Amino acid sequence: MTFALTAEQLEIREAVARLCQRFGDDYWLKKDNEGGFPHEFHQAMAEAGWLGVAMPEEYGGSGLGITEAALVMQAVAQSGAGFSGASAVHMNIFGLHPIVVFGSDVQKRRFLPPLIAGKEKACFAVTEPDVGLDTTHLKTRAVRDGDHYVINGRKIWTSTAQVTEKMLILTRTTPIEEAARPSQGMTLFYTDLDRSAVEVREIPKMGRMAVDSNMLFIDGLRVPATDRIGEEGRGFQYILH
């Protein structure tokens, strides 16, 4: 067994490094001092096809693997962009893998091409205040109402929510005391971040000013059932992929 990179993998790393040379230390220093999402960098990565490196080819991706995606991220960080550059694109590269694995073909056609092309950005709303790392005890509820779900709750440390159009959100649809086990009864949705029902409040922090961190206050967010990923109650298992 060898762990040496293949010629193709080395080419990927070199190509990303060349792209990153267009965004030098002055660019990232300004972003780190003044804040503001690096839209130009994000769009350049999209135009070069790197946001879809691990996405299926039939939806506009490159059809490569997680190793290749990790090499893209390594090259971005190593270029001098550091955590700011990596955090600006990591959700788009890795975050929608549950949709790739568990989403329907209709959902993949709806959701993946705009993300790969850089026309939409997504945030990942999982962590909650007062829950910490014990995701099984999250309190954000999604209640079925006809052909919709109504979501209420709070999320914290949700990156890029200031600039995203979409949200991958983990909710509880069955109260934990009624679930067969704590990891069951949670449901995953990929839906519009409707700011009329979601207040996005930025959290002041030290470092990584280019990528905002936020608390979300969700009050009566109506989500079409067609935005549910996979089966109801299996969301926790899905986010592990």
Structural features, described:
- By secondary structure, the protein is α+β, with helices and mostly antiparallel strands.
- It has two domains: 7-117, Butyryl-Coa Dehydrogenase, subunit A, domain 1; 122-239, Butyryl-CoA Dehydrogenase, subunit A, domain 2, CATH 2.40.110.
- The chain has helices at residues 7-20, 25-34, 39-47, 66-95, 97-102, 105-116, 235-239, and strands at residues 122-125, 141-145, 148-159, 166-172, 186-192, 198-202, 213-224, 228-229.
- The strands form two sheets. It has a four-stranded mixed beta sheet.
- A hairpin with a 2-residue loop joins β2 (141-145) and β3 (148-159).
- It starts with 6 loop residues before the first helix and ends with a helix.
- The model has no long low-confidence stretch (mean pLDDT 95).
Comma- or semicolon-separated keywords:
241 residues; Butyryl-Coa Dehydrogenase, subunit A, domain 1; Butyryl-CoA Dehydrogenase, subunit A, domain 2; 2 domains; 4-stranded mixed sheet; 4-stranded antiparallel sheet; 7 helices; globular
